[in-house]
């Protein structure tokens, strides 16, 4: 019989401890301390309490927890001495059916890993959906993480231990994240369409992009949207009608194009989550007192053409007609790509939405960073999308012989940029939520025996407010003047982007907070360092975002980008709660 929260919350201490026995391998102290926080509002609250107990533990306790876990396909498994939980997990992943070659590879990796780090390799082998990783995936992950730094790898082991505990709790309570599984499955299926083999790349109006359009339109119809269309720029638009015909709509969505060799959830998560919510409303024959309009934006990344936010920009009337004449790397003009896809640029101006017809815009998105992962929280409420300034620069000095030019007579352009890079790093670190990056460095025609006469570089400065961002830009420009004057150089700079910060609308921000609280989770407020479609919608209507934790330390724009179906379930439930809040607020 499955355990219930009511049973756990009301049980005597020893009985409650027994109910959670084996959730964390040979470590009953975690359950004992977490149970002091009873009653738990939700299973998510229990999971968080246990993860937080580990996070607050002494390093020696954390290390002991890691060392309490068995090796994958190791001696304990061979001798049948694993705990019932570990045995089930390794069996689910097929580790009991390893070929001789796979077993040899795992044994070698186990030995190398333990020699390097001093503890066993920990991986939640049941995977992000709970159905089990393949042996090939396990071995590939093992080999990749063997290259990691000890501090990082220790934290990654603890994160995997929490995932193992989460799946064990699901089993104990008889919980299946069915809605999260739908989100996860959609991501897997849509990722089958790509511009290239062996990587996920979907750029604007390629055959893979058009295949994604058709798939999304089919899913929207299947979920119960009353109107589904592909608009003049290739956005896929679905409308689920409400009970009040003239009421303002809720607008939501995100993009389905990707960076080159990207991940499955960046942007797409913000399409799947509201899609699953509408599917549930339709299944329950339920209508809200407002329409829900979901837009799967066709372009946000600017990969094929230099037209970032094309999809969301067109929706607010900010499509630049000059973009139609841009040509991609193969010389194909955007105008021609649209014609091939059956799109009519003359209809783009008809797409503009009138803000008075909308309640606001909300977007859910994978975090694309490590913060939520590090603090063991599945959801974060976005306070603001950072404003950014980007520049391309070239430092110019004098190329000279590396052997004959004394150090005090050099006009070294690369050394000057290196000095600038360190200044940017130091200056940005002085202010919370301010970041500065020199991401591109190039010495044209550089040679091992020549003092660099030129050095090209980039600058990317972002902050939650334009004032903080602009103050750093001012200081960086002053530092460039000081460096060039001291070193006898000159610098050419071109500003290529200036995007204003997009703070979340307070009332919408509070709705997301209440949605997170309703799940029994603490509210974590955080800025977004990356740009999103919500930035464009912010120009004409109130907006707010919800972040979902990413796995693999939050890496994004990368094939390793991942989420769990359990976290996706919480994201769907938070979105459902926001919809219910809005319905209750309507007259």
Automatic annotation (TrEMBL):
InterPro entries: Amidase_Cbmase (IPR010158), Bact_exopeptidase_dim_dom (IPR036264), OHCU_decarboxylase (IPR018020), OHCU_decarboxylase-1 (IPR017580), OHCU_decarboxylase_sf (IPR036778), Peptidase_M20 (IPR002933), Peptidase_M20_dimer (IPR011650). It is an enzyme of class 4 (lyase). Keywords: Hydrolase, Lyase, Manganese, Metal-binding, Purine metabolism. Residues 9-170 form the Oxo-4-hydroxy-4-carboxy-5-ureidoimidazoline decarboxylase domain. Its cofactor is Mn(2+). Homodimer. Belongs to the peptidase M20 family. This is 2-oxo-4-hydroxy-4-carboxy-5-ureidoimidazoline decarboxylase. It comes from Piscinibacter gummiphilus.
